[in-house]
Amino acid sequence: MTEFSHAPNTTRRTILKGAVAGGLVGMGFGSFPFPAFAAADVKQWPGDAFKAKSEADALKALYGKTAEASDKISLDAPEIAENGAVVPIAVTSSLPKVTGIAVLVLNNPNVLAAAYTIPEGTEAAVSNRLKMAKTSKVVAVVESNGKLYSASKDVKVTVGGCGG
Amino acid sequence: MASTIRVKAVVGGDKTTVQSLIRHPMDSGFVKDRSGKLIPAHHIEVLQFDHGGKTVFTALWGPAISKDPYVKFSFKGGKKGDDITVSWVDNKGEKDSLVAKIQ
Fold it and tell me: What was the ipTM of the complex prediction?
């Protein structure tokens, strides 16, 4: 800090304060700026829904309603997944005003795998990769116009994704 | 520190397609280690994408998402050179974020 020694005292203090504050922010969030509006918040996470053991319980905890079958949802999943630890699943829907997409694996210990929030302007399409404990029915649920619709597909798993 | 987040956002027509890969163990809480002890659950709970001060996509994830998770989605309104912010937080309170440019 000797480079500040010729600066007037007040300026030096201000600079030091700034440096300290900057250091604290850096420690908290790694080396990247972390704008407050962009923070992912744990409070959004619906713990009850992710602990549910059945499709009905998960949907009730997540959306508070039940789903009806729809042919306007396309669930793209492999028929046979050789490795249950990585099963690529894609869900797209042509339903209007989609606000949410959820993916459930019915034979997993907890059925709900993922729930996505789709704001206006974002397409009703999402791809991700899931773990599957064993052969199971995979269910895609789409919230459209305040109602729930679902489509399902059986996926055979030859090696489970839950380890030993 | 290298970021745990890799993101690629590309404009095509009127929509921006975002692909993201995050380095994270995503331990389910059902797997045992070599000594037979259960590895506690450690997984991302919330993953969020923001563009222009608006959240364009939120993923709520359970432990059934694969290790080093991948996600792909697309939204309308992005322009080349715009910032897109990716942030995640996991069940242990660990977090990371990254600002990337739309290509």
Answer: 0.87
